Amino acid sequence: MPKSQVRKKKVYTPPTDVRPTAATAAARSKPSPVWLPVTAVSLIVFGIGWLVVYYLSEQEYPVMSWGYWNLAVGFGAMVASLVVLSRWR
To answer: Which GO terms describe its cellular component (predicted)?
Structure first.
């Protein structure tokens, strides 16, 4: 049985008025600053530590008057680390 023909597709090239310049491409691919992953990891550790202290102290520490808002602080720190990590390249 004969083999069917393979069609060749043309390579897409975007129009020149839409194509990004080399300067903007270089600006986008800059590496992340050193403080970014350090801040993200420290926020994760802080959030987990806050929650662990809250549960192990039977809701007396870190701040007794906040009550269940201590959970919001712990989880908020971890969510903030996700926001910081979304900027990592």
So the answer is: plasma membrane
Q: What are phi and psi of 80, to 5 degrees?
A: -60, -35
Alpha-carbon distance of 71 to 46, in angstroms, equals 12
For 33-73, the pLDDT digits (tens) are 889 999 999 999 999 999 999 999 988 788 888 888 999 99
Model-level pTM? 0.64
Please give the Cα distance from 30 to 34 (Å, whole number). Answer: 12
- How far apart, in whole angstroms, are the C-alpha atoms of residue 83 and residue 5? 50
Compute CA distances 55 → 5, 26, 47, 62, 80, whole Å: 68, 47, 12, 10, 21
